[in-house]
Request: fold
Amino acid sequence: MAVARKTVVLKDEGGVYHCVTRCVRRAFLCGEDYATGKSYDHRKEWIRSRLDKLSRAFGVDVLAYSVMSNHLHAVLRTRPEVSAGWTDEQVARRWLSVYTPKHGDGVHTDIEYKVTEADVSAIMEEPARVEELRGRLWNLSWFMKALNEHIARRANKEDGCTGHFWESRFKCQRLLDDGAVLACMCYVDLNPVRAQVAESLEDSDFTSAYDRIMARKAASRKQLLELEAQQMDQNILKQEQTAIAYRLERVSMLVDLDGTEAPSPYWGTTQYLQILDWTGRHLQKDKPGVISDEIRPVLESLELDADEWVESVRKYRKRFRLMAGTSAHIRAAAAHAGRAWFKGCRSCEAVFRKRDLPGPAPA
Reply:
């Protein structure tokens, strides 16, 4: 039986969610369509750029993403406390940066999309409208609407057709604790490796893992470049500086796993990439293997069963349904929603060694 979105997504509280959107057409969202031979790889950058723009306008953080051939994954964190601190003008300008108004009638003057001071003032003059937009700017559904609608319109225009581009509204899963967030981020970042369309994380372009890895390499190269700059040809130096700036700009869309806004105190970028690398190699081997001494302490600090870890990532969609987390947290979320249970409680017990994780259970 279908479950209402409001049962999964908290109305008045922030949360972390795994969102999936799938293309409805035979034609691919991205990559090469085997039926027509046409490549849609350029659409991957459409999606990444749109995610970047929306993450800067909304009170929504991007923790992880992966753009596949006919669907996309995103791990998003809604932040109502962030939008609550914006001024009325900031709310107006952020909203207009996403839904930019048209100016001109297309007859006497060309239509132009731009934000004017009059547009900003018109919103600020209506306090009720400001508060409505403030709520929308941290709302998960509005974020996904701004993403999916934009991509659908652009793809329809390119394909010269109309109608549905996406299979349905985005599918959504709430991540209830640190262990669930880690498992889901790994599942999302390892999608290309698991699907055997990439051999390694460094081949998995248009994933958050790829962006983080390339940014770390760029940061290291930047330090060396500062020492070598005077001995280098200036044209080569400029090219390298441009490439470094590009990699660092790409990763700025993502939450810094080492910063104050990190999703968990139990792992940072180094530990996360170590877990990803080890898990990806053992997914390819199609066997769990022996847990590395580098990552076992991280998993055990989250009360995750280290020996079950690879299978947890491989079978993530089967083990976790509408909610992901410890069975205790899932049961607490079910009680909060007025339900007796959510599917997946039993299977979650195979993932977590104990019922509770560090941190509070959902209200």
